[in-house]
Structures are given as structure tokens and as C-alpha cells.
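Could someone model magnesium ion with this protein?
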Amino acid sequence: MGCASSFPGKNVGRSGSLNGEQTVANDPKNIRVKLVLLGDSGVGKSCIVLRFVRGQFDPTSKVTVGASFLSQTIALQDSTTVKFEIWDTAGQERYAALAPLYYRGAAVAVVVYDITSPDSFLKAQYWVKELQKHGSPDIVMALVGNKADLHENRKVSAQDAMEYAEKNGMFFIETSAKTADNINQLFEGTGIYLYRNKTQLSWITCNNRPKCRSCICCYEVP
Ligand SMILES: Nc1nc2c(ncn2[C@@H]2O[C@H](COP(=O)(O)OP(=O)(O)OP(=O)(O)O)[C@@H](O)[C@H]2O)c(=O)[nH]1
Ligand SMILES: [Mg+2]
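Reply:
Sure, complex below.
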């Protein structure tokens, strides 16, 4: 799926701060990005992060309590580095009131649903509205349909999700933390987007590979 290369980086520590002042750092060669994951419990947020940071999948992943912090640095093709400071929030209702602590000051919000669960898609829409009301005005939002490996039980069509994402100025991508499909593309694409000062790139796998240069899967940093 897709043709983007991945640049596995190093886990650079657990020193996240909640002050939310700095979202994207100014050094153009070393970008620092505060990223928050939101979405219903069980959609796979923690598994997406685990796959991205450690390259692993945990079929017995436990529910997140409060939130957890991890960071990961990737290198783009011209050796610009992007350090993601990732807040993985708890999807259970009882933690919903804590979410603003984590999305405040975030440069990127990754809103996740499970493609087999229409309820989780509705919950994703709730989070999008919440971010539109209370998030940073220039927050970058990605809509992520996870568990794409379970396509035989699909209940949310990619077309519906894509249309919703377009209407709300979001990126859209389907991932599988289990098979690793599109996980690196999700983060790498976010990094390239921020690096290019938010120049629009399409996240849809294009038909003009390898060189349309306008979608994440073909883009090369000059
Ligand atoms: N088949 C499949 N299962 C997945 C995938 N991602 C996560 N899961 C499973 O879904 C369950 C929930 O995953 P978590 O990552 O813990 O979910 P979460 O969104 O972090 O849930 P909360 O922490 O409660 O908000 C676990 O049993 C995972 O193994 C995926 O891409 N495919
Ligand atoms: Mg979790």
C-alpha cells in the first residue's frame, strides 16, 4: 500500500510537557511537533503509536489510563528531522474531560476511528467538532480509519470518511496497526506537510506513481 519510504528514527525520550506553548519549533532543519491522538476506546490509538515508535503490535493492548507520552524522530529525505511528541489519550468516556489538557497547543491532531465500527466514526466526528471549537485555530487534523486489515467487516466506507474529511479540511488515511499498513505514511506525511509549510498534499494513493509529486506517496523533499 502506498510507495512512501520510511525512515525509522530513535525513541528520544519521555520528557513531554503539557504546557502547549510550542507546537512546531522554528529551526527549519529540526522540526518539533506536538501531536495528539483522539478517538473512541478500542480503535487502536495506542497500537498505532506502538507500531510507529517500536515497530510492534500488541494484540492484548490494555486500555490507556489518562494518557501516555512517547516521542519519535524521523528524518526526511534531505535529512531534516521531525521529532514527534505524541500524546496518546484515553478513549474511555470517563477521561473525556482530560482531553483539552492534551490537545491544547497541539500542532497536529490525529482523530482515529475503527473501520468496522460506525459508532467510533461518530465519536471521531465529535472530536473533530471539539477541536474546531477549542483547538488551536491552525491545528492540522488527520482522520484515520484504523483496522484496515479487517476490511471484510468494514462498516464505514472509505468514500464517506474521505468526504467528511474533505468537508472539514482534514487529511484522510486508512491504516492497520496490525499489519503496519500506512502507519509510517501517516506520520511521515504529517512531517512533510508541516515541513512544506502546510502545502496541501493528497494522502490518497495516486495513479501517477512514481512521480506525481503532489501526493504523500510520491513526494520527495527537494
Ligand atoms: N485487527 C486489528 N486490531 C487492532 C488494530 N489496532 C489495534 N487493534 C486491537 O484493538 C484493541 C484496542 O487497541 P488499543 O490500541 O489499545 O486501543 P485504544 O484506542 O488505545 O483504546 P483506549 O486506550 O481505551 O483509548 C486491541 O485488542 C488491539 O490489539 C488493527 O490495526 N487491526
Ligand atoms: Mg490506548
